Amino acid sequence: NNPEHAMWMRRDQSLVAYILSTLSQQVFLSVSDDCTAEELWETLADTFSQISEARIMYLKKEFQNLSKGSTSIMDYLGHIKAVADQLAASGNNISDKEKVQQTLNGLGHDYHAFITALEVLPVLPSFNELQGKLLQHEMNMKRVIERTDQGNSQNVLAMNVKFGKSHGNSNHGGRGILPTPHNQ
Description:
Helix content is about 70%, strand content about 0%. It is an all-alpha fold. The model has no long low-confidence stretch (mean pLDDT about 80). The chain is elongated, with a radius of gyration of 30 Å. It is built from eight helices and no strands. The protein folds into two domains: about 5-50, no CATH class; about 55-150. This is Retrotransposon gag domain-containing protein.
């Protein structure tokens, strides 16, 4: 019946609620039985301070095998950063230079000229600088593809108009889209 103890319990439960609200559902389910903020904090510390060697080895292997594949540059860079951050949280820091090298190693053939241009520089850019350069390069590649697609569409249209005018009749009697030569 001590009012100070009651206030302390309310504050403690508020802190417990705050901590629980920041947890994923999976983690929440494993710690939701803890009654006080101290118990909750100790459980979380025990759970996450002992990252297994197997998990560290898995993350290192995952980092080494990252490749862009068909994902966007933004997704690819986000994945590299996420794995590097997980390794750093386990005490295995990945240097900025290692992130840059892995990023370049994981790019596909579409980026060969980009990689070659960077490799001739006296110093490779930082990971943050590389992000900006890669995003710009991806936008440029999309523009080229759009222009090429647009140009191809215009060429097809021009060829259809040319064939239609030169043969005077665009009705091909259901024999396909290309006109057949007429004997004159």
